[in-house]
Amino acid sequence: RDADIMASAGINAVRTYEAITDTAVLDALWARGIWVLNSVYSYGGSATSSVIDKVNAVKDHPSILMWTIGNEWNYNGLY
Fold this sequence. Notes:
Distance between the termini: 36 Å
Radius of gyration: 13 Å
Largest sheet: 3 strands, parallel
Strand order of the largest sheet: 1-2-3
Strand content: 15-25%
Shape: globular
Low-confidence stretches: none
Structural class: alpha/beta
Number of helices: 3
């Protein structure tokens, strides 16, 4: 239902705070032409190796436009 609302509002891309690894959610977004900027590392207390499983879970899904590694203010300390 949310994907329908987003599509009717003209939204064509979403940036997540947490990684979406549920392919049913990604399928629903993709069916409506919505790209996903999937965040895979949003908290500085997480090990950087935690990214691997999140990426591998959905790396081949066509809705994934790109991966993001966190906030603009470098809360995760990666850059």
